[in-house]
Write a structure and sequence with these properties.
The complex is a heterodimer. Chain A is mostly helical. Chain A has two domains: about 55 residues; about 210 residues, Orthogonal Bundle (MetI-like fold), CATH 1.10.3720.10. Helix content of chain A is about 75%, strand content about 0%. The longest helix of chain A is centred in the first third of the chain and has 37 residues. Chain A starts with a helix and ends in a 6-residue tail after the last helix. The mean pLDDT of chain A is about 90. About 0% of the residues of chain B have low confidence. Chain B is α+β, with helices and mostly antiparallel strands. Chain B contains 20 helices and 13 strands. The longest helix of chain B has 17 residues. In chain B, helix 3 packs across helix 16 and helix 19 runs antiparallel to helix 20. The chains are: A mainly alpha, B alpha+beta. Chains A and B meet through helix 5 and helix 6 of A and helix 1, helix 2, strand 2, helix 5 and helix 13 of B.
Chain lengths: ~280, ~425
């Protein structure tokens, strides 16, 4: 019994040790960035234990006075609107693809998948030239449309599989009760597929929020987003590590509460919460 | 709240109006778009761009971005011939390539109208003189300078080393586990280790081509002089440099000098000004500055000239020329040098400006004088002004870095660089 107990405790201890190691691996870089953000320029690379009280909010003040808050707002605005528009267009599209007997669904699924697989760098030059001629460079609509090339296929693809799990009987009973197809979608199907809807929206938002490439090409001074704006702290003479650390925190922080709230839905969605 | 069709449409129209606002601004007349990459001067210029509008009535949208962002955007703008940029940042090292690709236009017609034409130093101006035409107007010249810990060198009875051999001798005496003797740019790249290594080459009489000035562009990088230079560069860094110096670039050097982990470096004047600034450096009061060391063939401090040009596709070249004239005027540059940590100006009279002398004298009494002394010893073609220098510089830089990191012997590295130069020259 003692041996078994010892083996059990040893196993548990090694499990905890492994977890702590993984935790340290995940958390230490974040902690490091946090410390960097609070250190004055003269102590940026000094070990924290050598001068633990040498902290300042100057980097935060510097960021507040720079163009970065505007870039952060641009990121919120463009990623948010692109996600909302993708949901408005993509959810009904996915519903139609999942539940109707359309011809060419197989082709549609492949087209969507190809859109997801195509690397943006492959079509950036034609996109850029079209945008220049259409006057869409450095505009919010231009950036939102570009983001929708990323978010819309994701929404349609993920919602398609979610809706496919909804039993047809549920929709038929709503229709028999006199609901239109649109009403059945909004009042019956979407609530039943809520975890999938939330997960698609969150993942769409994160893809747009983290985008660097489109923003690099399409934005200029007015609509520049946070990920590109961080690069502006690197000049040919210096790297403003303190500001970069603060900016990294600003880009990461808003995502954390969203992920905590949405975590349950994402897990449910991935494990197939909608049962027949 | 009940949604009505009219309310929904009004809301959508209002949202569209807000979202399209930047587009309307761009569509307005009397505007120019300026694209620059981040440096103290360009950031200062953006901060006072409203002054230009007040003076001329032309609105200047000054976009200052990181260098990597700049390069991606400007390559697309140029290759697409979009006309969206009217004034562009032109590093002198790129001027030939951009000229040959017809991406920029000559500015000769606008030179007489430059507000401070006579005050701009001849050397930096000539960096943009190609085939008898001027392709840009300089605003900054970063020059190689030495920063060193006076306290550590004093301890061994040495001042700033005069030659690379002296530097090696001092390094042997001051190197310790706590403080490495020397750090230099080692990361491969025409703007990285190839900003530094030509200072060694030229000090030992080495060169890139048989006779660059005379027009003989036969590669000559595998010469005994260059080999001697490479050996001392490797000796300094591998034996007296900090751990990991084989990949060091200017950010690592700045940080290690500011934190007292390294005793000597040679860097661009912009970086040196950060290393000796009490606001950013823990050891500022111990720092001395000097012109970079030389060798048997003399001294050739590194130089990097930056300026502004007009893209060939600009839709408003006259407005662009007025902006360049304003931006390089002594009055504007003086204002920027007072507002920002900017010592790399190319307006000659500013080195004697009382307010600037006071400002930078407070950081380091000799700062402006040493910079001028170094600038006077530079040569315009420190890095050859060739359209394909990017590729050539990168090839040599890779091999120099390979030798430093022990991948090949110095002899093999230079032979490989020579072969690659010959191959590139054949295109």
């Amino acid at each position: 019994m003692d041996d078994k107990s010892f083996a059990y405790r040893a196993k548990k201890a090694s499990g905890i040790a492994m977890m702590l190691a993984f935790l340290a691996f995940a958390v230490l870089p974040i902690l490091w960035v946090l410390i960097l953000s609070l250190r004055p320029a003269t102590a940026l690379f000094e070990p924290i234990w050598e001068s633990p009280t040498n902290l300042t909010f100057d980097n935060f003040r510097g960021i507040a006075d720079s163009g970065f808050p505007r870039a952060l707002l641009n990121s919120f605005l463009t990623a948010g609107i692109a996600t909302i528009l993708s949901m408005i267009v993509g959810v009904p599209a996915a519903f139609a693809l999942a539940k109707s007997r359309l011809r060419g669904k197989f082709v549609a699924s492949w087209v969507l998948l190809l859109l997801r697989m195509a690397p943006p760098v492959g079509f950036v030059i034609p996109l850029f030239l079209i945008y220049i001629n259409a006057g869409l460079i450095d505009t919010y609509p231009g950036l939102i449309m570009a983001y929708m090339t990323l978010t819309l296929p994701l929404v349609v693809w993920s919602m398609w599989t979610t809706f496919a799990q909804i039993p047809n009987e549920l929709i038929e009973s709503a229709l028999m009760d006199g609901a239109s197809l649109a009403k059945a979608l909004v009042l019956v199907v979407i609530p039943a597929a809520r975890p999938g809807v939330v997960a698609a929206a969150i993942l769409g938002f994160l893809i747009a929020w983290n985008d660097f490439f489109f923003a690099l090409i399409i934005t200029r001074g007015s609509t520049v987003t946070a990920p590109v704006s961080i690069m502006n702290f690197i000049s040919s003479d210096s790297v403003d590590w303190g500001s970069i650390a603060v900016a990294a925190i600003c880009v990461t922080l808003p995502i954390i509460p969203v992920m905590v709230i949405a975590n349950r839905y994402i897990v449910q969605s991935l494990s197939g919460a909608v049962k027949g | 709240m009940k949604l009505t069709r009219r309310g929904t449409l009004s809301g959508m129209a209002a949202t569209a109006a807000v979202l399209a606002a930047p587009m309307r601004v761009r569509a307005a007349t009397g505007e120019i778009n300026v694209m620059l990459f981040a440096q103290p001067y360009t950031q200062g210029l953006r901060n006072i761009a409203a002054d230009f509008e007040k003076e001329t009535g032309i609105r200047a949208n000054v976009d200052v971005v990181g260098q990597d962002v700049f390069e991606s955007r400007i390559n697309l703008t140029f290759t697409g011939g979009t006309g969206e940029v009217d004034v562009v940042h032109v590093p002198a090292i790129q001027a030939q390539k951009w000229r040959e690709a017809s991406w920029i236009r000559p500015v000769d017609d606008y030179l007489d109208a430059l507000t401070s034409r006579s005050d701009l130093l001849k050397g930096p101006m000539d960096s943009y003189l190609v085939a008898g035409q001027q392709w840009g107007v300089p605003f900054a010249a970063g020059v190689g300078m030495m920063a060193y810990r006076k306290d550590l060198l004093d301890r061994v009875g040495s001042g700033a080393p005069d030659t690379w051999a002296d530097m090696l001798a001092v390094a042997k005496q001051i190197h310790s586990d706590d403080v490495a003797a020397v750090a230099l740019r080692a990361a491969p790249g025409q703007g990285f280790n190839m900003f530094i290594f030509p200072m060694f080459m030229r000090a030992y009489g080495g060169k890139f081509f048989a006779d660059y000035v005379g027009g003989d562009l036969t590669p000559a990088v595998n010469s005994p002089e260059n080999l001697e230079a490479l050996k001392i560069y490797i000796d300094l860094l591998n034996n007296y440099g900090p751990q990991g110096v084989g990949t060091f670039n200017f950010p690592e050097i700045t940080a290690s000098m500011q934190n007292g982990q390294v005793a000597m470096t040679i860097e661009g004047s912009g970086v040196v000004s950060l290393i000796i600034d009490p606001a950013t450096s823990k050891y500022a009061d111990q720092m001395g500055i000097a012109v970079p060391p030389g060798g048997p063939a003399g001294r050739s401090p590194a130089i990097a000239v930056h300026g502004m040009g007009i893209p060939a596709s600009s839709r408003n070249p006259d407005g662009a020329a007025r902006f360049i004239s304003w931006a390089t005027s002594t009055e504007t540059v003086r204002k920027i040098a007072l507002n920002e940590p900017f010592i790399d100006f190319v307006n000659g009279s500013l080195a004697r400006d009382k307010d600037l002398v006071t400002k930078y004298g407070n950081i380091q009494p000799d700062l402006l004088n040493v910079r001028v002394a170094a600038l006077e010893q530079t040569i315009g073609h420190y890095r050859p002004l060739l359209p394909n220098w990017d590729e050539i510089g990168a090839a040599i830089g890779e091999n120099v870095n390979g030798a430093l990191n022990g991948l090949y012997s110095p002899e093999d590295a230079l032979e490989a660089a020579q072969d690659e130069m010959e191959m590139l020259a054949s295109f």
